[in-house]
Amino acid sequence: MTERTGTDTDTADAAVAHAFAHLHAEATTTLAGWSAPDASQERLRAAYLDHLQRHPDGVAKAGPPAHLTASCLVISPDGGQVLLTHHRRAKQWFQFGGHLEVDDTSLYAAAIREGREESGIPSVTPEPTIVQLNQHRLHGDFGRCREHLDVRYAAVVDPAVRPATSEESLDVAWWPADALPEGTRTELTALVDAARQALHH
């Protein structure tokens, strides 16, 4: 995990930690109660919990350079297509997702908000169970953000539903699950497989 200098007590922003205390507590409870599907995901679950224990502001963008995020993969009922956003800053295709906001009540609520905002589809409602954890360093114009500890959910949506492109995206489009965009194909394929397994596709 990315560390800051000094002790956590000294470096944690007290105001940020206070504002996000409800999300910190909820994320800790959610991750503590989640049954990881394999050893790799279990290692990440333990690492996320350790990060939260060490960083009272670890769920906030204004907290440490490494912080929790929430995302939502939108997948067709047959699992054959996924709806992705061409991220304006990263210039790559991803599932919908982003930073937790102080008004979010949970990781799940954040995933719902991100899915609806970035897809332009107000009916997007992911299943309430985590489908995958993914820790990744950021490359590009992301300011002080250096690493995301992403908590991922999945929502089933009919491809006939038309998405809309938000200001955070260059485009939003359906992709065949077996022909995902290059650049993020490896990561997205693993997420699609995890979502299919979780949703029993």
Explained architecture:
- This protein is an alpha+beta fold.
- The protein has a single domain (8-198), classed as Nucleoside Triphosphate Pyrophosphohydrolase.
- Helix content is 33%, strand content 23%.
- The chain contains 6 helices and 7 strands; from the N terminus they run ααααββββαβββα.
- The protein has helices at residues 8-11, 14-19, 21-33, 39-54, 107-119, 185-198; strands at residues 66-75, 81-87, 93-94, 96-99, 132-137, 147-156, 169-176.
- It is globular and about 45 Å long.
- Mean pLDDT is 90; it is low at 1-10.
CATH class category? Alpha Beta
What is the succession of H and E elements? Answer: HHHHEEEEHEEEH
Structural class: alpha+beta
The amount of beta strand, in percent, is: 15-25%
- Pick out the low-confidence regions: 1-10
Helix content: 25-40%
Give the distance, in angstroms, between the N- and C-terminal Cα atoms. Answer: 33 Å
- Quote the average pLDDT: 90
CATH-wise, what's the superfamily?
Answer: Nucleoside Triphosphate Pyrophosphohydrolase
User: Looking at the structure, what is the overall shape?
Assistant: globular
Total strands: the figure is 7
Radius of gyration: 16 Å
Number of helical segments with 4 or more residues? 6
Total domain modules: 1
List keywords for this structure.
about 200 residues; alpha+beta; Nucleoside Triphosphate Pyrophosphohydrolase; 6 helices; disordered N terminus
A few lines on this structure:
The protein is built from six helices and seven strands, in the order ααααββββαβββα. It is an alpha+beta fold and 201 residues long.
